[in-house]
Amino acid sequence: xxxxxxxxxxxxxxxxxxxxxxxxxxxxxxxxxxxxxxxxxxxxxxxxxxxxxxxxxxxxxxxxxxxxxxxxxxxxxxxxxxxxxxxxxxxxxxxxxxxxxxxxxxxxxxxxxxxxxxxxxxxxxxxxxxxxxxxxxxxxxxxxxxxxxxxxxxxxxxxxxxxxxxxxxxxxxxxxxxxxxxxxxxxxxxxxxxxxxxxxxxxxxxxxxxxxxxxxxxxxxxxxxxxxxxxxxxxxxxxxxxxxxxxxxxxxxxxxxxxxxxxxxxxxxxxxxxxxxxxxxxxxxxxxxxxxxxxxxxxxxxxxxxxxxxxxxxxxxxxxxxxxxxxxxxxxxxxxxxxxxxxxxxxxxxxxxxxxxxxxxxxxxxxxxxxxxxxxxxxxxxxxxxxxxxxxxxxxxxxxxxxxxxxxxxxxxxxxxxxxxxxxxxxxxxxxxxxxxxxxxxxxxxxxxxxxxxxxxxxxxxxxxxxxxxxxxxxxxxxxxxxxxxxxxxxxxxxxxxxxxxxxxxxxxxxxxxxxxxxxxxxxxxxxxxxxxxxxxxxxxxxxxxxxxxxxxxxxxxxxxxxxxxxxxxxxxxxxxxxxxxxxxxxxxxxxxxxxxxxxxxxxxxxxxxxxxxxxxxxxxxxxxxxxxxxxxxxxxxxxxxxxxxxxxxxxxxxxxxxxx
Length: 661
Ligand code: ADP
Ligand code: ADP
Ligand code: MG
What we know:
Bound molecules: adenosine-5'-diphosphate, magnesium ion
Shape: globular
Radius of gyration: 28 Å
């Protein structure tokens, strides 16, 4: 077996490969760019090599530097992950020449399958159903229009070298066809250095369903069931699951058999994926073959119980598959959600910055989290914005879906924008729950883009109750502290008026051991929780149902995030509520230039002085309250304009500690 594997990648997939290599007792070498010297994959590997500047073209795509890293560390095999050099035949050849194993297929298979026109020809010959339209690349607009009319609109103009959803345009008439050719071609030229485009039939309202295969060098090829990846945005996958809620066993077998035939036709070895587009009548058509490990491979691992990375390594080392097609069993249901550093509210614009808080949900038998970052990591402009994958697993689709929803509620990220609220909203979407999927799902269901504020809370009682409990706790603390400091009596009311989405509810809250008892208009509820103030996740059980709500203070309100909904909830005592009703609506003051004390407490220390520059995530001050030390950190880079409090001082909630320039 290999002694040392170099992973020519970064992020979650590098970490994922390192995990299996370690379990197999194989040494690992990470490579990194200057932007990644302290990245998680570097930390996890036994050894690491700096291979160039931040720009991928000069580091992760730099074959010479990676070859040098291999020679310097004595690695005897390379796992390429996905993206970067994973489908680069020249890299696989360079390794072959150097006598180093490539953990993937032979260069010839990569070359044939990397070209969408070539691979379609091979597929056709192997008896695989292909999308109508199998002419070659079109040279100009006139040829494109001619091909489109021969196939019949709508058509898809597609880059031969395409990948990652780039270089693709739908056309419904001649004019769109001419325009689409121009755009697809120039996009492909920029992304892949190859502007060739071909035309094929556009399948309306399709599903994307793909078959995972494994093939060894002895000629054994098996398929490991399908993954449905129809939830896409701009032809890029967002949610994947296995099995597909759409396939019956006959279609599965037919697709699997064709995928195996295609793999055999190119002498494929290692793990690979044959992608199909499936129409509403379950006709399926070959799209492309990905000659590498796929982002969404974990859902297949969950339902088959196989470790695909382990098998890729064993096969590259010359081992044969220890099982045949009949031994492959599909059990249960798995779902994967891709967590991206992007802002769904701003048309999914990638977001960069430092992760000032990063707490993924806890893993167990029903939950796996593949992550590539940790608290303090910098999300830079240089790489893909995908930072983690959440994978849920259960006996049924509905259980896997609710498990995922819970995990997303628990995922706490601060410092960059992220799409967790969007993913949670998808999990709660009735059409998604019914499994009525199509690649147009997101475009159809969120035509104006995604707005967290537009998602109606699925359980208002839960949110109202939670806000009341949280507020009561804060009041209790404030009262105790002022009692301690000023020798006054502690006074906490138990009755509150909760204002959420313009509606007022009266709630009474009683604190007891292990939770709260509440009385609402709709009845009494009990909440079990050991939440403590300042914790960003308010979690526990209400009426036997587990919940997790993210809490953030937003001016005088609490911002609660749950199941994709985000609401600002105001909790007042009844007298304030009466007065509040008479108040003109006022905008919250802009406090972004100030560091405010999040709670009443003691300023233990100040870590900065006037005029000092600070970086996002850097410690600014420590505030102690009720024996808890709270480190306050910079949310963004800046310069301290003024220090407004002294260490040793007692602070009121929202008291200004620092002012930024
Ligand atoms: P998957 O089917 O595994 O999700 P994708 O097509 O989404 O595969 O690509 C996975 C990753 O690889 C993405 O980060 C994508 O940007 C990158 N990628 C895919 N194909 C290419 C390519 N030809 N050139 C560069 N990057 C690519
Ligand atoms: P990439 O290499 O970028 O992954 P694919 O050929 O796999 O490109 O297509 C990506 C996605 O684009 C598919 O999952 C599907 O949503 C859509 N797509 C591609 N070809 C067609 C087609 N002929 N008809 C309808 N949708 C298509
Ligand atoms: Mg694809």
